[in-house]
Amino acid sequence: CFYVIRTPERNSLFEAEYRRFALKMSGICGFQEFYRLLQTVHHIPGVEVLLGYADIQGDLLPINNDDNFYKALSSANPLLRIIIQKRDVDEPVVFATNSLQRRKKGLAGLRPAQQKSKPGLMIGLPQDFRQISSIIDVDILPETHRRVRLHKHGTHKPLGFYIRDGVSMRVTPQGVEKVPGVFISRLVRGGLAESTGLLGVNDEILEVNGIDVAGKSLDQVTDMMVANSHNLIVTVKPANQRNNVVPRASRVSAGGNSSSGSVGSAFSHDSAPSTASQSVSHHSNSNSVAEGDSDEDGDGDLIIETDSLPPYLPHRCVSNGNGSHRESPLSSSLGQRPLPQSMSLSMTTPTHNCSPTKTSSSQESMREDGNIITL
Amino acid sequence: MMKFRFRRQGNDPQREKIKQELFAFNKTVEHGFPHQPCALAFDPQLQLMAIGTKSGAIKIYGSPGVEFTGLHRDAAAVAQIHFLQGQGRLLSLLDDNTLHLWELGGASRDRGGAKSEGVVYLEEKRNYSLLGRPGLESCSASRVTVLLLLSSCDLLCVGTEGGGIHFLDLPRLSLRDNQSLLLDQVMQSIPEDYRCGKSLGPVESLQEHPKQPGKILIGYSRGLVVLWDLSTRNAEHMFLGKQQLESLVWERSGSSFVSSHSDGGYSVWAVASGNTYTHQPVSSSIPYGPFPCKAINKILWRTIQSGCPVVLYSGGMPRASYGDRHCVTIQQDKQHVTLDFTSRVIDFFTVHTTDPEHDYDDPKALVVLLEEELVVIDLLTTGWPSVPPPYLAPLHSSAITTSCHLDNVPANHLTVCVCVCVCVCVCNLAPPPRQQELLLTGHEDGTVRFWNVSAVAMTPLYKLSTANVFHTDCDPNDDPLDPTNDPEALQEEEWPPFRKVGCFDPYSDDPRLGIQKISLCKYSCRLVVAGTAGQVIVLGLSDEWSDHTVDVSTVDLLQDREGFTWKGHDRLEPRASPAPFPPGFQPLVLVQALPPASVTSVMLHAEWNLVAFGTSHGFGLFDYHRRTAVLARCTLHPNDSLAMEGPLSRVKSLKKSLRQSFRRIRKSRVSGKKRPIPTPTSKIQEANAALADQEEVAPVQRRIEPRSADDSLSGVVRCLCFADTYLRDGTHHGPTLWAGTNSGSVYAYALEVPGVGTGRGRPGGEGSGCVEAVLGKEIQLMHRAPVVSVCVLDGRGKPLPEPYQASLDLATAPDMTNPHSVLIASEEQLKVFSLPKVGAKTKFKLTAHEGCRVRRVAMVTVCSTAQEDYSETSLVCLTNLGDLHLFNVPALRPQVRYDCIRKEDISGIASCVFTRNGQGFYLISPSEYQRFSLSAKVITEPLCTVELERPLETHIRSLLHTNTSGNTHSSLLETHTLLAVPGGDYNRTWPRCSNVHK
């Protein structure tokens, strides 16, 4: 038999229900069935909930498919603690981040941090997993290069790296040539760049969001990276070529060599970069730029329209004339001047009151009409 | 995706052709005073003046608008320039001991297919390098000290450091072999007792005999002066001077000459035929003695028919008390004036009769080239007043802090604006240019200067001082007028009789007076200037003197924000008592922002009687009709503490860097001492020191992080904009105010302006109601880059007209039927949003693509060279790399890109200002604007001709300078040159100078 602990809904914060009921291990054949069962047990049909369970170590793990459901069952000895939580946009604690959260990030700066999240283990549903970083275009890049995408979405971690000028070695038909290049000089501890493990100190930066940085100054590259920092795609030549994604056996010797190059490696298979890498970068240009456009990062500007703006008054002069109750123009305009804080607060309040389904649907519509948040 | 868009456009041949007809980049003319001048020459025959600069440029000036520029291949300083008189050629000597021959040649250069007849350019023809011959002279001995061009212009005498004189044929610049006059030749004829085993020293002066060509006067540093006959190669006369020589000058008749000396004295020597040696001068004096004086570097002796000769010399000041002054003395009989300049005297010359028939010099004017300005003294008028030159005005008389350009200024308005001012001259160019262009410069000392930049010559129009609005430390009874206008007031009974001349004055009484932003309405002649201490002054034009107190209003931009304390400067104290304001722009209202941080943005809407201003703390809206504040809005981010500390917050970092450098010094001393005894501990110390050094010289690295809301100075208001557009809904438009900040926020306010369209603020107009402002929209750009510019576009995608343009029918009315849009340019992106519902329409991510940041943005309308009536409105954008990008509007497709300013030239980039017709100005030095053009059609450049008699070329009788500058300003200027022009035409080109002839 199991213990089931149901956590409260957001708007009844101090009220938790605990239910304990028994269940035949063999009686449940799948996650969906179990889910429906819980809904009926708790009399919450139609309310979307998230399920979690506490494993032997006491870690909180999610239940959202058959696999981890069975895993959960097997760990029951004999009691299984299940935590049910209403799926709520404003619940940042456990299954915090869906795409909606990200959307409102711009506002977060304006709003005093009101939700203090308790430190808990952050494991979410697969659909709630957010991509922090990725290696992309592996199929079209030379093995010595790596294209890394860093998403500075929901996280509050800094991107966390520094770049510097340096000298890069290039193998040309005329021999080895020194050309100026831009390198990663430092990773900030705990930053995004360090925690992904995809970027390292002394990695040479070749492209930023599909644009070749050759011939560009350190400041230019900095500006490009900052401008793209919400969705940064950098192509690097890692200083440490050992961890390259090189599955083929023929590259083993190359991998062995790679430890020697600290500045940037000049390998035999990189010896004709003028043709090979150009064609590649051409490919990738169209590719990644298109990505940059489609992700709508630029359209994420926040537009606040005030409801305090009175509609058009047909007789403006008249209304001004008889506006004896109004104060002097200065004090009146200053007095009722809406501050950004007050507006962002008023914006968040309705989401609390609305039923969750309604909120999400209105969010959907907002996303469609160009992210204008109408109040 | 963007790339594909470019490519598609680039492949369209028709579009390419249109682009070529629209856009062309040219750097056209340099306005202002040449930076670091170091040589001066004058050709009295052609009336041309040449100035050489430290960077190797030669600039020739004729009548206003006639200019030629040449640049030496090597950027060495120009040491001397000499005209080959009447030939349109000149010779320059560079610091690297090379001689260059320049020529005004009629090489036709094509520009945009329009070939101009007879246009002349300055071109280098030949050069010659005088090398020391091995065995004979060392390298330094062959260093050229003086040049003398014989009046016949076929022979150049070159005096050297070693005392030798070489002769070069002109214009071939070939050395006459074996004819050089070396020191030993001269030494032979010197009496034994004068020789005393010492060298004669370098050649200090070479002067040709005024009456007997072929005889030259040679002055050696030690004091010996030799009259040398070139044809007989024989020393005709020797003047055994004992005092170290500085310069020589002939008296016109050739019967005597004057020498000036390093002890501050000068001597007159008689040239009597007969005896070979003269031991004593006729007379000798040290004008500023008896105490030790500095050298007289150059002396001129000019005879006058009606009286005593005029002596003019530079230097000679008493060493102890006035050794640091930069002076030129004019002396005639009892009259004695010591012109006291604010910068170093480079050179000077007099404008006088050169006609050989004439027995007297009769000087008309003295022209003094100083390091920072050109001063002209009228020698015909008693009291020798100074005359402002028509050009070469020192832009930087006080450092330029801002500038503002207006074109299409209605001619009558400009005349009104200009005629009322006593100290203003109107340049009667004939025919008057159709279009008047005005450039306003704001200066550190609180003045605003108005310049006419319609043509090649940038002429000063008017100077406005704002200092008298305030109670400052300096004398409150100071005359607001330029003190040079009444020399009597400044003449004091002192010795030497100093007179302050010139307007270059780099010292500001109070840095808070500095002008930061200017906005002028050319139709209503309302001017708003805003300064460093948060002052915003609204001025109106008046043609009478006025004594009034200025209304003062303060606007607290912090409002109710708590916890901030302003640590910067205090606000300026407004003057309590009425002050006399001269005719011209007179202050109406003074608005002071609190805290008194520097105004970062100002915008005037004269039709609505509103002025908006922004600082690092917020922005305000002021109704100067009712003299009330309408709105004050704080833009500070709660985390932004830096903004509150004011401009002095840098002190901390300075302290830190000082500490670091001291530490470094100490460290190097320590390690230096320890070196001889290498103990284990010292080794560790050394290693530590080395480590510390490494830390300090860590490679330059840049942090990659998105901009965050709490970056410092995020509240700085970068731009303000008034527009009559749709903010509330799509059917009703009305006045709006837009403000953009450093952190990527844009605030849009809907304004209630009573009586819009009926002439608010005019007498009888319906303007008694209050203006109200209500926040309509707030836009936070996601990338948070500073907002550089906000511009509202009408239904056709064209920028809205300026105030009054629509109501006075001066521009096509904006399209109010189709939906409007707003263009927001941040440092990183250009973006067009729809109105009234703000939704992104088009964008261009400049930084993401090019790695450059937007510095300046302007909307320009460029006309086609092919079709008279075709024009396009483009967005021009200057980046931090100094290049210009042009985009079409509102599609924001890139059109062309030009390199304009070096990216290291930060002040150049910061000073750039665009005109509406596709031209621009930027500072290339503190004193010079470079003008450039992006339009293929509108080019203001000097296309000038000098018609001259040249021995080898076509003979043209009269001298004619013509200026045919561009298609819009084709104007034929008068032929006469800047200084001292014979005949009655004088008044036309240079009215201010007319008194020279009275």
UniProtKB/TrEMBL annotation, chain A:
Its main location: other. InterPro entries: PAR6_homolog (IPR051741), PB1-like (IPR053793), PB1_dom (IPR000270), PB1_Par6 (IPR034868), PDZ (IPR001478), PDZ_sf (IPR036034). Residues 319-364 have a biased composition (Polar residues). It comes from the Eukaryota. Residues 365-375 have a biased composition (Basic and acidic residues). The keyword Protein biosynthesis does not apply. Keywords: Cell cycle, Cell division, Cell junction, Cell membrane, Cytoplasm, Membrane, Tight junction. Belongs to the PAR6 family. This is Par-6 family cell polarity regulator alpha. It comes from Oncorhynchus mykiss (Rainbow trout).
Automatic annotation (TrEMBL), chain B:
This is LLGL scribble cell polarity complex component 1. The gene is LLGL1. One of its GO terms (cellular component) is endomembrane system. Residues 821-937 form the Lethal giant larvae (Lgl)-like C-terminal domain. Belongs to the WD repeat L(2)GL family. The keyword Repeat applies. It is found in: Cytoplasm; Endomembrane system. One of its GO terms (molecular function) is GTPase activator activity. It comes from Oncorhynchus mykiss (Rainbow trout). Its main location: cytoplasm.
